[in-house]
Write a structure and sequence with these properties.
It is a single chain. This protein has about 300 residues and is an alpha+beta fold. The protein has two domains: about 110 residues, no CATH class; about 160 residues, no CATH class. Helix content is about 30%, strand content about 20%. It is built from nine helices and 16 strands. The strands form four sheets. Strands 1, 2, 3, 12, 13, 15 and 16 form a seven-stranded mixed sheet that branches. Strands 11-6-5-4-14 form a five-stranded antiparallel sheet, covered by helices on one side. Strands 7-8 form a two-stranded antiparallel ribbon. Helix 4 packs across helix 5 and helix 5 packs across helix 6. The longest helix is centred in the N-terminal third of the chain and has 19 residues. The protein is globular, with a radius of gyration of 20 Å. About 35% of the residues are buried. The mean pLDDT is about 85.
Amino acid sequence: MDLCNQTVDTVIEIKKNTPEGTMLFDAILDYIKEHKDSPLSKLKGEVEKVLSWFSFLIIESTAKTIVHPIFYRPDVFTKNAIKAVADDIKDTLYGLLFVQAAFDQDKPIFATCHGAQLGYLHAGGGLTKMFKEKGSPYSETYYARKNPHEGPEELWQIDVELNARQRDDLHVFSTLKYPLPDIFKHKGEEKKEKYINKDFRHTIAMTAPIPDTVEVLSFHPLSSKSRKDEKYEIRSHPAINEDQLIKFKGLLKDIPVVDAFRYKTMLGFQYHPHYTYDDLDTSSIFDYLINDIIDSVYK
């Protein structure tokens, strides 16, 4: 942590000297090559040493930090920006260095929510706020939609974030039934219909540009990419009034929003498949992941 604390001001200086169109993390890696005795270089070395003790990397969601916009917005050059603080710079840098180390060591990465956003950012993908932040972060604003895959009616909670959990008990999830991506199907099941439960709770979207190095496994239900293939139908519900239905139509995104992808050795999910492991065929994702880890260890 001492090394992390010493890097914040340096990251800001690198950003100020980074040409427009260049990713900040790429500029940081260039800086490390040129300044081998710097705290940034030492931090990278420590991260590589720690990861060398393990066979794979897991980067989970976080409720305390966010991906700092200094890494993906060209107009941000300060510690405090858009509800982000210095700790978010440290956390984002630390996560990106672990992603880089895993790629360099050819080790599998399982990344969800915050972790997926870090991987998508590393690949050069675009990140953007899903919704404008107004008022209380946890106002009870409900919207319902018909599931296009004959699943139960979905109930979304949207204010500053999209949430598919019960506010008073976050261990209770809605069932959001969506097709299992083909890569997770077992041999001989390629043509069989299989489904997973997607559990969403997030504020930032992984969107355009979608890097060529990223293989998109599925798009978010609120994305224009999904709505081209699905009959999107907003439903009435006792908790919903007409004003909310009108507002919900305005929240639908006319941009691609990625919610699952493969990038190098990483599987990234905007949702949390480990939370809904026993629902539908979600466990198939982990069958694939475990075999991937075994292959990487014993190759």
